[in-house]
Specification:
Number of helices: 8
Structural class: mainly beta
Low-confidence stretches: 1-32
Helix content: under 10%
CATH architecture of the largest domain: Beta Barrel
CATH superfamily of the largest domain: TonB-dependent receptor, beta-barrel domain
Number of domains: 3
Length: 987
């Protein structure tokens, strides 16, 4: 039976009901991450005497929502938890003239200070002051910035996923991000899952890999904040930065839009490899078409009280992937352009209810259904060398905000979400029942054949199901010069996966004629390695995972121009370390009580990292007390979650036979024996977890300055240092004594991979940012990053291993995604006639890469050993030393040396542009005609985002095997030029 597994809708209702009913009656431990802003200040008279008892009323100009408070005995007032938007504030006190503050713009997380001076009635009837969001935030202690709605709407955006605009900020990248995972590396420069992603203050990451759980329609995003380093204590489970997104709400005006964005092969220029295939083989220009369309609408249900907003978006892309190995004499029939269709449907609905001036609620629902053909095909990876993925994703969330008094504010939030992961081969998108293995599903799997210059096959694909429940709350209390925050929360994120039989992988030390057919398979010779997991055996794994966190934070203003932020946070991750297992349970550990008993390795009861205390301290000094020059600094300790994917191996041992054969016979690696009979006599590879495994830890420090140039322009400079340690890596603790031939310390087993806290990364950066807010028809943002990352983490994703456990220092070197220089300049200008031009120029220097020997030199059964005389990530960092070692090694194999010109660079230089012409149709209606061009000048940018650590669906780009004649080459490229036309109707 074929079907899509989906959670019942009643589960969503139960989850959301729990989030609302827990409510403000109890201060549940929570984790703030609120998206609201605050208006604060001191009310005084003309003689500078403070005025208590002043009634201050803030009204949202878009929704009519009202918030009121009263100034305290020292004249201070604070209105916090205000949704982003435009506000008018009125100050009233008997005997004094009314003061009106107009057009105060609050962005996500912004605290605006407005000190108010009131005059006696009769001297002046009223005073009106116009406010604006400050370009220099005088109380901000972290390194952060906001991407506004104006930037989202006016700048070129290839994906319509606003998180891509995080790259406008310094210290960010999308290197090593898996295709179609709209992710970003933030601040720490280590790997893709170290940052936190929040939607309306709620977690938007899945627990297995730490990637974003789901995407939202662009029209549903109001704005977002990018925190690059040193977030305050309310933010946790991030070793680097935070992206916090605020979604849109309806207003008192019924408004909406419908749009269509269109691309076609007639609007594209062929990239370098497509052009080469066209010129040398007569290959036609690849077919291509992309339609992205949708609509949104919002408005009042009850004016000033209840509002709604909804958005839907569909992307259908008929694209092609180009396979170019650089060795056509062997793989010509694998090369060419192949169809790679994909689609994504996203939808969003939200209702906001202002119960009264002190209480408000929102409820939202969001979902995504996505399917694409191949995760990482192209270049040297043949068309079927990886699978596509069908991914249903849904979430329902709610929040309640309660102004308890003029001093106290409570916010409670809850969420229930589902994520499904159903991989499939490129030729069959059928989705089966979870843990069901009919013959049709098993036929999808093709053995892998890995050669120095090409890879072919997809041996297995496991399904993953995830359900998450989250409840959090934070309480803010203002007492004089102190604003306290207390909170905590619980997030349960269990996952299940089914693991089908694996058809195995063959590795060859030489390139050979191959096209995937049985005829060429039969002619293959001299494999150097065969690996397989569980022939004819399938299993199911359950991975519970619970995050708990509490924090306390004090924002203290000892004097008017100094803000000190002090905080302490505690994070605890339960159950993920397999602590719910019992070593005597033979359904999980079938060898219990036998010679292969693993119980000696396990101490489940005493596992768990229970000392994750994270102190935070920061300051912001407004040197002249005028908001123009602000010096800031901060230090904090942060912890990253242990991702569930690295814990799977411990539940697999002996339930599926782990087979690893060096120099096997071909095509039968078992020599005529049954695979199970072979596995029952040969020592097994096993995977275990260090019983003392801890969450990785980062100590981050920053110092910086912001200088206002005008009221709308400022320059920001920050120095960032992030010292990350304890990243989990696998290492072989049972190595052979003399490389490939010696005995093992424990002869009962073959390789024993233990997950230990061995990884580290040190990141230093200078972050510069010049920004000009929208005014006089233009805005711009220029960001520059000078960075250096060093460590021993040989990957950029969520799992990795020490390359040579007996020589671990070989992994020390530049970070896998290290880029020394990055410049991003963006801006938009409104010309006469309602024509707006937006542009983004991106310039990045190259990443490093590895030189791999193409053989198992250390006898660990893994063909990832570096060329003797080299270390990790030496390519494009020390090419002279690299080539000396590579050519010496090739000489021992009778292969010719490489010249320096052999090594490609993945430096990047592209200008994207957008032109928008608006036609007013009256009554708030308009039509926009839009044209976008990506890589306007057609520069050849080679695609190698995986760098030295490409894996887990991210190809390295470079050919790393030095036995290949195309070692050091990159066989994929981004588009030379790609244009897009669009029409948008708004009302």
């Amino acid at each position: 039976m074929l079907r899509r597994l989906r959670p019942s809708f009643s589960s969503f209702l139960i989850g959301i009901t729990a989030a609302l009913t827990i409510g403000p009656a109890v201060v549940v431990p929570a984790y703030a991450q609120t998206t609201g802003g605050a208006i604060v200040g001191v009310v005084s008279d003309v003689q500078s005497g403070v005025l208590p008892g002043v009634t201050l009323t803030a009204r949202n100009a878009e929704t009519g929502v009202v918030r009121a408070t009263v100034s305290e005995a020292d004249g201070r007032y604070r209105m916090a938890g205000l949704p982003p938007g435009r506000y008018d504030v009125k100050a009233e006190l008997g005997g004094f003239s009314v003061v009106d503050l107009k057009d105060i713009t609050l962005t996500i997380g912004l605290e605006v200070t407005h000190n108010i001076t009131m005059q006696l009635q009769g001297v002046q009837e009223s005073l009106t002051v116009t406010g604006q969001a400050p370009v220099v935030e005088a109380t901000r202690t972290d390194v952060s910035g906001v991407i506004s709605q104006q930037q989202i709407e006016s700048l070129p955006l290839a994906t319509r996923q606003p998180v891509a605009l995080a790259l406008l900020m310094p210290g960010t990248s999308q290197d090593a991000v898996r295709p179609r995972k709209f992710n970003a590396n933030l601040g720490a420069g280590a790997f893709t899952n170290a940052g936190a992603f929040l939607i309306d203050g709620l977690w938007n990451k899945e627990p297995c890999t730490g990637e974003p759980r789901q995407d939202f329609p662009q029209n549903a995003i109001r704005e977002f904040k990018v925190n690059l380093s040193n977030a305050t204590a309310e933010y946790g489970w991030t070793a680097s930065g935070v992206v916090s997104i605020a979604t849109k709400s309806g207003t008192n005006l019924i408004s909406g839009e419908a749009f269509e964005y269109f691309r076609d092969k007639s609007l594209n220029t062929m990239n370098r490899f497509e052009q080469a295939a066209h010129d040398t083989k007569g290959s036609p220009k690849p077919n291509y078409r992309r339609n992205q369309f949708g609509a949104s609408i919002g408005g009042p249900i009850v004016k000033d009280k209840v509002h709604f907003f909804g958005a839907v978006e569909r992307t259908k892309e008929d694209k092609f992937v180009t396979v170019s190995t650089g060795k056509s004499q062997f793989y010509s029939l694998l090369e060419g352009s192949f169809p790679e269709p994909e689609y994504s449907n996203t939808y969003f609905g939200k209702t906001d209810w202002q119960i009264n001036s002190n209480q408000s609620v929102f409820v939202r629902f969001a979902g995504q259904q996505q399917d694409y053909t191949c995760d990482s095909c192209g270049g040297s990876a043949a068309y079927n060398s990886d699978g596509g993925i069908n991914q249903p994703r849904r979430s329902v969330a709610a929040a309640h905000t309660w102004v308890i008094s003029s001093r106290a504010l409570n916010e409670v939030r809850g969420q229930y979400s589902f994520y499904g992961y159903y991989p499939h081969p490129v030729s069959d998108t059928t989705v089966f029942d979870f843990a069901d293995y009919p013959a049709q599903r098993l036929k999808q799997f093709v053995p892998t054949f890995a050669f120095p210059s090409a890879t072919y096959g997809w041996p297995a694909g496991l399904y993953v199901l995830q359900w998450a429940k989250e409840v959090r709350d934070d309480l803010s209390i203002t007492t004089g010069a102190h604003t306290w925050k207390f909170g905590g929360g619980v997030r349960s994120m269990p996952s299940q996966d089914d693991v089908p039989p694996n058809n195995g992988a063959w590795t060859f030390g030489t390139d050979q004629v191959f096209d995937g057919t049985p005829a060429t398979q039969a002619l293959l010779r001299n494999p150097i390695l065969f690996t397989a997991t569980g022939p004819n055996t399938s299993i199911r794994r359950d991975l519970p995972n619970v995050y708990t966190e509490v924090y306390v934070q004090d924002e203290w203003k000892p004097v008017s121009n100094l803000t000190v932020n002090l905080g302490l946070r505690y994070d605890y991750q339960a159950k993920v370390l397999n602590t719910t297992l019992n070593a005597s349970d033979t359904s999980i550990f079938p060898t219990f009580g036998t010679a292969r008993d693993l119980s000696a390795f396990y101490d489940f009861k005493n596992r768990g990292d229970k000392n994750n205390f994270g102190p935070r301290v920061g300051f912001a000094w407004d040197t002249r007390n005028n908001g123009r020059t602000v010096v800031r600094g901060a230090f904090g300790v942060y912890y990253n979650p242990i991702w569930a994917t690295v814990m799977r191996g411990e539940q697999t041992n002996f339930r599926q036979a782990a087979i690893n054969i060096s120099n096997p016979s071909y095509p039968d690696p078992y020599g005529g024996r049954d695979p199970f009979a072979f596995a029952s006599t040969a020592p097994q590879n096993i995977s275990i977890v260090d019983n003392g495994l801890q969450n990785s830890r980062a100590a981050a420090s920053t110092v910086g300055i912001s200088q206002g140039i005008t009221s709308l322009m400022a320059i920001h400079a920050d120095v960032v240092y992030n010292d990350m340690e304890g990243v989990p890596l696998l290492t072989n603790i049972n190595p052979r004594a003399n490389g490939t031939t010696g005995n093992r310390p424990n002869p009962t087993f073959a390789r024993i991979d233990e997950l230990k806290n061995l990884g580290y990364n040190k990141y230093k950066a200078l972050l510069l940012r010049l920004e000009k807010r929208q005014d006089k028809n233009f805005q711009f943002l220029v960001s520059y990053t000078l960075a250096k990352g060093d460590g021993n983490i040989p990957f950029t994703g969520n799992s990795g291993r020490v390359t040579d456990s007996q020589n671990p220092d070989l992994d020390a070197g530049p970070s896998a995604n290290d880029r020394r220089h990055v410049l991003v300049a963006s801006g938009a200008y409104l010309l006469p006639g309602d024509v707006q031009i937006g542009a983004v120029w991106t310039l990045r220097t190259t990443m490093p890469f590895n030189a791999v020997a193409g053989a198992d030199l250390n006898g660990d059964g893994v063909v990832s050993d570096f060329v003797p005389g080299t270390t990790r990530a030496m390519g494009n960092r020390d090419n002279a030393t690299l080539l000396t070692a590579v050519n010496a090694y090739r000489a021992t194999l009778g292969l010719a040396p490489f010249p320096a010109s052999q090594l490609d660079s993945n430096d990047y230089n592209a200008v994207d542009m957008r032109v928008n012409k608006s036609f007013a149709l009256g009554s708030h209606r308009k039509i926009d005609l839009i044209a976008q061009v990506f890589n306007v000048f057609g520069r050849d940018n080679l695609a190698a985002s995986g760098g030295a650590g490409g894996q887990n669906g991210v190809p390295p780009g470079w050919t790393l095997n030095v036995r290949s004649d195309v070692f050091g080459r990159i066989n994929q490229a981004y588009n030379r030029q790609q244009a897009e036309l669009a029409v948008r109707v708004g009302w």
